[in-house]
Each structure stands twice: as structure tokens, then as C-alpha cells.
Design brief:
alpha/beta, Aspartate Aminotransferase, domain 2, four-stranded mixed beta sheet, 39% helix, 13 helices
Length: 431
């Protein structure tokens, strides 16, 4: 029955988007699946956006969407924010590919080190993926070890995805995969490879693995194990740094040795940061011993530097981030209460929310094994039918242009979408 209803949803969707369908058919002639990001590829085909402003998107067929995906956290400032636009426009007037130092670099580095207590020195990259690659490499070089401890469901960029049973194009690091929120599995790994694990790479909230928050004491326990075993702790805060002015680590009270940042800080432009303890970062300081070269043509590209400067100075204020966190906590609680009446639930932290077709406790990625993901796909299409765009996997990401009023519109669409699935016999209303 679910398959039949899905096919009807696909047809309803396609009938309203002939130009997007035509665009996708043409794109498939030149691009695998017709896209360049697997996460944006969904059945029957993705819609093509022609313009965006604030928290709204418009596609080639003229449909407007209330954007509650936020490009998986990239769009924290919304679409076309004025401060970023003005900074980038000024860069267009001055030139943008110098092959030399950009004036904004020092200011961006200073602002980052001032707001993140664990950052003594930073290095820029083109993306969060590259930042994590650099962080792992620095950690292994420093420790003289070979293994990287990661977590099932952990996603750290396009070449660093560690979900059991789900193959990805990964860099061939020697990885040990543990379960999130399972400190015993981390202890067991250190017991097995005490002299080989040189780096633990972890998200303060498991992101792509389900937006599952760290249990009390879990990250503190990892910090203690790293200290006891002479291992470098890396926090991937590409997404969770939005939780406060000093990132997720400031709220948690846990200081990593290295931190990686990216996504929204670049205001929608390619941007990444790796930073942390001086003794680790100085491995890439010329004239030091040992010294390791780290280059990248676009590490300091002027568009990203200008956009980041605008974001950090004008948009990512303490007040804005605190308000966003509070609004996210409120929306998730309200959404969760609604979802549970239909056998779903909402997980997450602050302004990052995950919707799942189960009410069972979720503490690790493996807890989602066996859930019927088709129900999420149906919910995704029902939300699109009501003009609200979320992630196809149930991810909801808040942005600053949204308001309590748009949150109410989101909840109304969610309620009507769940009702439609229930009336179609696909969900049972829980007491």
C-alpha cells in the first residue's frame, strides 16, 4: 500500500513541475542522476530553484516554498542576506583571485579565535570536508599513530562518511567505528589499539546519523579517554557551532584539541576552518620542525573571506544565536508532541531537528535500523504539497529570517501532512 501511495505522490508532484522535470532530464545527459549532490537527489526528480530570498525559494515552475531545510545548515543567515551581499559586491569591484594574501584573513581568524575558546590558531580551507581532512592529518602526524576512531552515522564531509552498511567514496584512513553515546565501545577500542588510535573525530551532536544529541557525560568521557591514551580529540562543529557564540563546545563545557568549522560561517560560499592548540597547528608553520606543507588555491578566496567577515561581525551575534537556539528548542518540542501522536518523533539540539518514523528511544544511528524510511519520504512529499521544504530524510534546519509566525506555518503544514497520511490509512493516531 505504501508503494502505491508513493507512486501517486510522485505523479502528483511531477504533474505540477513540468519544467523541473525537463531540466532534470537534460541534466541526466551530463550528470549522474542529474545532480552533483547525492543528498539533493530524490524521486521522482528534484525541483530546480531560480531565486531565493530570506527563508523562501521559488522554482522554475513558479512554486514558492517556505525553506525549513536551510541547505543543511549552510543557510543560517537565510538567502541573500544584505551584509553578505554587500561584502561580496565590494569584492567584485576590487578583484578576487590575487594569488596572494587577502586583507580580510587576519580579521576572520581573529574573530574566530576570540569567540571559540579552544582555538589558539586557525587555518582556512575550501570546505568542512577539507577542514576535517586537515584535522585528522595533523592529529595523526602529531601522535605518530595510524588509526582514527569515528562513530557509526558520522558524516564529516564528502569523503568522510562512516555509516555501517552504506558505502561511500571515502578517503582510505584506517578507521575504527564505534557507536555514538556508547562510551564502553570507545573504551574497548582503546583497550584493543592503545598505541594505534591517534585521533577521535566526533560531532557534539550526531548530525547526518539522525541528529541525535550526545548523552550526558559521553563527550566528557571521550575527553578523559583521549587524555589517558595520549590521543587528539577533534570536534566536528561544522553544524553544531551554531548552538552558541562559542559553539556547541561552550554549552557542553568540553574543550577539544582541534575544532573544524564550515558551512554557514562562509555565508553560503565555500569555506572551512581547522583550529585548536598551538602545538598541533604549528606543524604547518613554515620554519618549524617538523613542518608539513598545507596548500589550497581557494583556502583564502576573497569571496569566502569577505562573506565570513560579514557573518562574524554583523550576523552571528550572541543575541542572534541565542534567540535561534531558543526558538529551535521550542519548535522541536512542539513538533515532537505532534509527531508522537502519529508514531513519529523529533530529535535534535537547538536549531537542528530530525524527524523519524518511530517513537522508540534513539541514542545511536543503529537505533534507526528497521524503521520504514518510506514514511519519511511520504511526509516529505506531503510537506512539499503544502509549500514547505524540509530534508528528504526528515531534517529540519532553522535560519535567522524565519520567525515564530513561519514556525507556526511549518507546524500547521506538518499537522495537515500527518493527518493526510493518517486518513490514507498509512498512520494510526496514537493516544
Amino acid at each position: 500500500m505504501i508503494t502505491e501511495v508513493l507512486e501517486k505522490s510522485y505523479q502528483r508532484y511531477a504533474n505540477k513541475r513540468p519544467l523541473s522535470e525537463e531540466q532534470n532530464a537534460l541534466a541526466k545527459t551530463f550528470l549522474p542522476s542529474g545532480t552533483t549532490r547525492s543528498v539533493l537527489d530524490f524521486a521522482p526528480f528534484p525541483f530546480t530553484v531560480v531565486s531565493a530570498a530570506g527563508c523562501r525559494l521559488t522554482d522554475v515552475d513558479g512554486h514558492e516554498y517556505l525553506d525549513y531545510l536551510g541547505d543543511y545548515s549552510v543557510g543560517l543567515a537565510g538567502h541573500n542576506p544584505r551584509a553578505v551581499r554587500e561584502a561580496v559586491t565590494a569584492t567584485l569591484e576590487q578583484g578576487w583571485s590575487f594569488g596572494a594574501v587577502a586583507a580580510e584573513e587576519t580579521d576572520v581568524a581573529r574573530m574566530l579565535c576570540e569567540r571559540f575558546a579552544s582555538l589558539e590558531l586557525v587555518r582556512f580551507t575550501s570546505s568542512g570536508t577539507e577542514a576535517n581532512l586537515v584535522a585528522i592529518s595533523l592529529a595523526l602526524k602529531s601522535s605518530g599513530r595510524s588509526k582514527v576512531l569515528v562513530f557509526d552515522g558520522g558524516y564529516h564531509g564528502g569523503f568522510l562518511s562512516f555509516s555501517r552498511g552504506r558505502p561511500s567514496l571515502n578517503v582510505p584512513f584506517d578507521v575504527v567505528i564505534c557507536d555514538y553515546n556508547d562510551l564502553d565501545s570507545v573504551q574497548a577500542a582503546f583497550d584493543t589499539w592503545p598505541e594505534q588510535i591517534g585521533c577521535v573525530l566526533v560531532e557534539p551532536m550526531l548530525g547526518s546519523g539522525g541528529r541525535i544529541r550526545a548523552a550526558a557525560g559521553f563527550l566528557q568521557g571521550i575527553r578523559a579517554l583521549c587524555d589517558a591514551n595520549g590521543c587528539v580529540l577533534v570536534f566536528d562543529e561544522v553544524q553544531t557551532s551554531r548552538m552558541s557564540y562559542g559553539g556547541g563546545q561552550a554549552l557542553l563545557g568540553v574543550a577539544p584539541d582541534l575544532t573544524t568549522l564550515g558551512k554557514y560561517i562562509g555565508g553560503g560560499f565555500g569555506f572551512g576552518v581547522v583550529g585548536g592548540a598551538s602545538e598541533l597547528m604549528l606543524q604547518i608553520a613554515r620554519g618549524r620542525e617538523p613542518y608539513y606543507d598545507h596548500s589550497g588555491t581557494f583556502n583564502n578566496n576573497r569571496f569566502s573571506m569577505a562573506a565570513s567577515s560579514a557573518m562574524l561581525s554583523a550576523i552571528l551575534t550572541r543575541q542572534n544565536l541565542d534567540a535561534l537556539f531558543a526558538r529551535g528548542e521550542d519548535l522541536r518540542q512542539r513538533a515532537d508532541a505532534l509527531l508522537r501522536t502519529y508514531g513519529f518523533q523529533a530529535t535534535g539540539w537547538g536549531s537542528l531537528i530530525g524527524i523519524h518514523p518511530t517513537t522508540a528511544p534513539l541514542t545511536r544511528a543503529g537505533d534507526l535500523t528497521g524503521t520504514d524510511r518510506r514514511l519519511l519520504e511520504l511526509l516529505f512529499h506531503e510537506m512539499l504539497e503544502r509549500g514547505v521544504y524540509i530534508g528528504k530524510s526528515g531534517f529540519v534546519t532553522l535560519s535567522l529570517p524565519q520567525t515564530p509566525a513561519t514556525d507556526d506555518l511549518f507546524l500547521t503544514a506538518l499537522h495537515h501532512s500527518l493527518q493526510a497520511l493518517s486518513e490514507g490509512g498509512l498512520l494510526e493516531r496514537c493516544s
